[in-house]
Amino acid sequence: MNKHVHVSGIAGSGMSALAQVLQISGYEVSGSDRLLDRNQDLPVFEKLRKSGIKLVPQDGSGITERTSCLAVSTAIESDNPDILKALSSGTRVVHRATLLAELMEGKRCIAIAGTSGKSTTTGMVGWILEQAGYDPFVVNGGAVLNWKNDSIIGNVRPGSSDIWVVEVDESDRSLLNFRPEMALITNMSKDHFDLPETEKLFKQFSDLVTQGVIGCFGSPSREEIFADFAPELTPGRIKFNYRDTPFSIPQTGAHNAENAVMAVTLCEKLGVLPQVAAEAMSRFKGVERRLELIGKYQGADIIDDYAHNPKKISAVWNALTDTYRNITGVWRPHGYAPLRTMMDELFAIFSKVVRSGDKLFILPVFDAGGTAQRNVQSDTLT
Q1: Residue 323 has what pLDDT?
Q2: Domains annotated on the chain, with CATH
Q3: What value does the mean pLDDT take over residues 103-116?
């Protein structure tokens, strides 16, 4: 393979991660994004530039005679100028997950899946293994705050060992590209697909794992992990015991307690002692846009979270209810298709979690462009 790869849609969390993995692996990398073409110069672009990745317009100019392949995600449509240029020049067009799986050949893949909690759990597993001296390579869907700084995005941690901890995505079925040694399936709920289809997809994935699954379709199962699990939840702190080892984690919410105990269970399977995991987790800062405190306004905490399906919204709102007397929430549907698919469930969950003293503002649907069917709007929920 020639040493130049062009990444289309490089602003996306999965694509920016792939671009970094390629560069760390010795490839020359360029990237394009329609947000950059709209003069939306996001912080991620500057960090990619600082790392040596060249950014160009999304007009096909990133594909040259030296380009071995064009990396795309499911979000990149077939009439994208980069794709048209690649096809006309005979350049291979490859999905992000396929290329990442190829880069991982010969490595010990530890995959984190599930409809909720993937990014946080991936970050927890990667952080524990790092602190335990395993030096893992971590590829995440969100930036781990322990690794993020002014020049580093934080969704990739380079490592010298053969252990690769990777968040895998069910939304486009691309998790089926991987053949993990071990996997953790956090949970299953309706999100991109109805629940029966979601369960079928995760079962297919679990059958690809060579040595063991934890959580859904695994041993230990979710039911076994949580049978006697009784975390103590206080504002900004989670406490629980695991194999007679006390854990005290600077995070909020029952859902993060579940993420943590599953991460610890997986790391124990990899040989990490609970005492070592506990010390590491006492210093885990969390993941960007997952109950992240980003500022204050007139004495009120401003918290950012990526929650976009009913289960995640419920988990986040309930976690904040335990901490704050009143909540003012601002939520933006993440695309027309998800809003259309989950309309009834979203209405039901907001009706359940929003208390009489709370306020909820729903913004217009996030429109990423393309050929989406725009026949549903946010005001349908109000």
Answers
A1: 83
A2: 4-100 (3.40.50.720), 104-281 (3.40.1190.10), 292-381 (3.90.190.20)
A3: 96
